[in-house]
Write a structure and sequence with these properties.
Layout: H1 2-10, H2 24-40, H3 43-48, H4 52-68, H5 70-76, H6 80-101, H7 110-118, H8 128-150, H9 160-209, H10 212-220, E1 226-239, H11 242-247, H12 251-271, E2 275-280, E3 283-288, H13 297-319, E4 325-339, E5 345-349, H14 351-361, E6 367-371, H15 372-378, E7 382-392, E8 396-406
Parallel strand pairs: 4-6
Antiparallel strand pairs: 1-3, 1-4, 2-3, 4-5, 6-8, 7-8
């Protein structure tokens, strides 16, 4: 229970994630707890030296504890700057009143310099003015109490020169702490900025591998991801006679051609709200209706297939290529999930996947072959020509259709539902 309460306190104001690193908000919550613990450690001293000043010390301690409990509350309310300023103010006030309360020099003023080194971790780069004011004020308070505790002089024990020398050393020490703190702040912010850039880069790379919703699930929970979908559409596209084509192209030309083709296909996939699953050699696989379920997945695949044909035809004319594209579309139930440990991937399994693949491999150049289930779902909006029965390995005779085009100049933009 205590551990849970501490986690809630520390993560107040931020969304706790496994990849989340220390940041000013979380650090503010942590330091608030530490200051409360240090303040409570003063209670035995105050009780032991029970006199008139002890009541004041107890008041300071309990007031500090109560006020610091508002720090995570302010962070929860997203008032981050106020939380940081309140924390520093309460801490400074606690040290200030303690220095005034105890008439003898107990070196409590050195806690001001401790705050000088901690404060740079609280402030972002755009909060430079506040940060400079805070550390400068803390250094001045330290020097001020050094003057108070060392003047007027006790000339019987120390000389004037010794006191001036001590004060000069304290001032130089405070100035050194201030300069080191400012340098620390610059480096801390530079590190946080690089960390944020690397995190964003990792996020982009992860989203290039996995769907957004799957990536979020993978980050928040390391458990196995496996989902069942009652009906989705799968599209396979493959370049006809690609292997002979490779012999006539240099490696750079070959990769450049595939990159141009697949980049165009990626654009079309995003346009129609489909999910790119993978590429394999010159093959391209996408799916509709997952990981977010919708009712227009078949139409999305048909639209995308027609545009893929047109886009690839343009590339063939541009590079004078004598080849074409085979496309197959199928519908059905699948299981989708993430497999692998290092080079993991989001993939699909099921008879519908195999059938869609066969629609492509048993198809013809520059033709789009679909299953009967795809035809039934999209015949109201697209023109088809019945091919007839095709003997599909592992399945048997399957009735298939050629997708010819859209009906009545149907608008190609599809809204994802």
């Amino acid at each position: 229970m205590v551990t849970t309460a501490l986690k809630v306190w520390v993560n107040a104001g931020i969304t706790p994630q496994p990849s989340e690193n220390i940041n000013p908000v979380r650090l503010t919550n942590i330091v608030a707890i530490l200051v409360i613990c240090v303040s409570l450690l003063q209670l035995p001293t105050a009780i032991y030296f029970w006199d008139d000043t002890a009541w004041y010390e107890l008041t300071i301690v309990f007031s500090t504890v109560i006020l610091l409990t508002t720090v995570p509350i302010l962070n929860t309310l997203k008032v981050y700057k106020s939380a940081k300023i309140l924390l520093i103010f309460i801490y400074t006030l606690d040290i200030f009143l303690s220095c005034l309360l105890w008439q003898t020099n107990l070196n409590i003023q050195y806690f001001f310099l401790l705050a000088v080194f901690i404060s740079p971790f609280f402030f972002y780069e755009n909060e430079k003015t506040i940060m400079v004011l805070v550390i400068a004020s803390l250094c001045l308070l330290f020097v001020g109490f050094e003057v108070r505790f060392n003047f007027p002089l006790d000339l019987q024990s120390t000389s004037l020169h010794q006191q001036v020398f001590r004060l000069s050393c304290a001032s130089l020490f405070a100035l050194s702490c201030l300069l080191c703190s400012f340098h620390l702040w610059k480096n801390v912010n530079r590190s946080w900025q690089k960390l944020a850039e690397e995190k964003n880069r990792s996020e982009r790379l992860l989203l290039n591998i996995l769907p957004s919703s799957i990536a979020q699930r993978l980050k928040s929970s390391p458990t196995l991801i496996a989902d069942y979908f009652e009906q989705v559409s799968i599209l396979f596209a493959d370049i006809q006679n690609f292997t002979p084509l490779c012999k006539n192209l240099s490696p750079q030309q070959l990769i450049g051609l595939l990159n141009e083709v697949f980049c165009l296909f990626d654009t079309l996939t995003q346009k129609y709200g489909l999910e790119k699953i993978k590429t394999s050699g010159d093959g391209y696989m996408v799916a509709g209706g997952l990981p977010v379920i919708n009712s227009i997945h078949a139409s999305q695949c048909c639209h995308c297939a027609l545009d893929m044909q047109d886009a690839f035809d343009g590339i063939c004319k541009k590079y004078h290529l004598h080849t074409g594209l085979r496309i197959g579309i199928g519908c059905g139930e699948v299981v989708a999930g993430v497999i692998g440990k290092n080079k993991f991937s989001y993939d699909l399994w099921g008879e519908a996947v195999n059938l869609a693949s066969r629609m492509e491999s048993h198809g013809l150049c520059n033709r789009i072959q679909t299953t009967e289930s795809t035809y039934e779902l999209t015949k109201a909006h697209f023109r088809f020509n019945k091919r007839g029965g095709v003997d599909v390995k592992g399945v048997g005779w399957v009735t298939t259709y050629w997708l010819l085009g859209r009906k009545n100049n149907l608008e190609t933009h599809v809204l994802v539902k």
